[in-house]
Write a structure and sequence with these properties.
With 240 residues, the chain is mainly alpha-helical. The chain contains nine helices and no strands.
Length: 240
């Protein structure tokens, strides 16, 4: 861009912001935009800049050379959105680069029109893909329904109590899920004994009266030991 070109561009800017172009401004703009030719895209860049609302309400717009460069690049890239190179498949790499750049510059500048729609792939599926897609029901492992969380958890083989559903009626936690608390009906870290027996292949029935009495006696004995230890500790503290 020459100073005379910059003068024409500044005159376009003055129509929007009422600036007073000077010889110094012309030379400065020409230096900043020396690699940018004065074309219609430059004038469109000025119009696009002043046609875009400012970031802050009431802000005064004042275009600078870098704004012209940026908006001009945006305008040219918009024309290349669906650009597809139309070349000769037998051309050499050197010829390809030259022709590719020539076509791209022609479309970017607007000298020739680019495609308005995005290119789409043509043709059908590969026979191997069709064979996987079709069976007697029309699907073969592709397009199946996605299992839910419970189904996915049940499909995973697990070891230990979590590998079976809890048989306790008040719980019935599914495979892979922890047991629920009897008080709050939410997941807890405790595994019900019946579920442990079920995982080991043992009967899941409730404990026999003998087993309940044995467990109760063991609990009472343990509680008595705790109380005795606490009493001994208290007497020892008083004796001191």
């Amino acid at each position: 861009m020459t100073p005379d070109d910059a003068a024409k561009l500044l005159a376009s800017c003055a129509a929007f912001d009422n600036r007073q172009p000077s010889q110094i401004a012309m030379r400065a703009w020409a230096t900043s935009l020396k690699d940018v030719p004065l074309d219609q895209d430059c004038f469109d860049a000025v119009a696009r800049y002043y046609g875009t609302p400012p970031k802050e309400a009431g802000q005064r717009l004042w275009i600078q050379p870098h704004d012209v460069r940026s908006w001009r690049d945006i305008i040219r890239k918009e024309r290349l959105e669906n650009f597809v190179y139309d070349g000769n498949p037998d051309e050499s790499p050197k010829q390809y680069l030259a022709n590719y750049r020539r076509q791209m510059n022609a479309v970017a500048s607007g000298r020739i029109s680019g495609p308005t729609d995005a290119p789409a792939l043509e043709g059908s599926f590969h026979p191997h893909v069709l064979a996987r897609l079709e069976d007697e029901h029309g699907f073969n492992g592709i397009g199946q329904q996605i299992p839910g969380d419970e189904e996915a958890a049940a499909a995973v083989k697990r070891s230990g109590p979590l590998g079976v559903e809890c048989p306790v009626p008040a719980c019935q936690a599914p495979i892979g899920r922890p047991c629920k608390s009897a008080l709050r009906s939410r997941a807890s870290k405790v595994i019900h004994p019946a579920r442990r027996r079920a995982a080991q292949g043992q009967p899941v029935a409730s404990e026999t009266p003998e087993e309940i009495e044995h467990r109760r006696s063991a609990s009472l004995a343990s509680l008595e030991r705790i109380i005795a230890n606490q009493e001994a500790a208290r007497e020892e503290a008083l004796g001191e």
